[in-house]
Design a protein that fits this description.
Strand content: under 5%
Distance between the termini: 42 Å
Shape: elongated
Number of helices: 3
Oligomer: single chain
Length: about 70
Amino acid sequence: GSEMCIETESGVKTAIKKVEAAVAANDKAAAEAALKDATSVIASAGSKGIFHKNNAARKVSRLTKLVNGLA
């Protein structure tokens, strides 16, 4: 039901925040680990239809760019 959606969506938000925080701290190892988590959370949200597939892909690519931007 909708509770599942809310839970997954907040999980996605949390996962994204973790990636952004690690990137802000310039911590590439943490950013890569957080990115792996975020990718799987976003993928499962996408497969449950919570996000549109394109939206999910856009989130992942934005985060991947952030992480890859770290030297």
